[in-house]
Amino acid sequence: MTADRIALRTRGLVVGHRGRALLPALDLELARGHLLLVLGRNGSGKTTLVRTLLGLISPVAGKVEWASGARRAYVAQAGALDVTVPVRARDVVAWGGLRGWDFARPWRRTPSATISDSLAALSVADLARRPLRELSGGQVQRVLFARVLASTADVAVLDEPTASMDAAGERAVYATLSRLAHQRGFAIVVVTHAVTAALGNCDQILLLDPDGSVDSDAAPPAVPEVVYGPAHQVTHSAAYRRLFSPDGSAVCATDHDHGHDHDHGHGHE
Question: Considering the entire predicted model, what is its pTM?
């Protein structure tokens, strides 16, 4: 990857809780126009990693480097959005362009053309004036992606964007994310359990396995693993084969994180 294309880089990044590492040090590079999947079983450290990348918690060691001037957008799980709030889809997209308040230009608004173009790009222009509470889960997600587009962000971080969707909805969402990355030039990080739907649309995979190769209580102590690289390489790794079948379905439990990671052996954080 050329340096001018790199949107996100980590150097010796160690994530964890209260100064205790969850995973080995991580070095990764994510370029504009690429989609990175973050995979792992429940409690593997995915949420902690995302929070660390976004600067919400400090790393145990190492550093996170964003490209100079890179704008970041975060899309939380759909359950974190209160769809009963009386707003229209167009209003939600307009929020993407808010830049904060100052005396000279209070609440710099998103241009109307940007809102319309973003809605059209995600094929939800016909929903612009519909209340959010009337939309399906897939439609709400496309509106949220349109908001990311309107934000003029360079990097989008998404947490379980297909939670509670059926298989067809999952495939449609990941096809859309792939298009945003490959055609619009976004660098996209996605935490997901919808591996089967996502595999054909990603460029890189980061697989987190804090339990390593432990298969039984009689096994030696776990050696945590982090496997990172091009998707086709990671899916052939031993760690991936322990967790997923070739089509991406789970071999072991990968229940949703519900917004937190397990602190193995010490209860929940």
Answer: 0.81
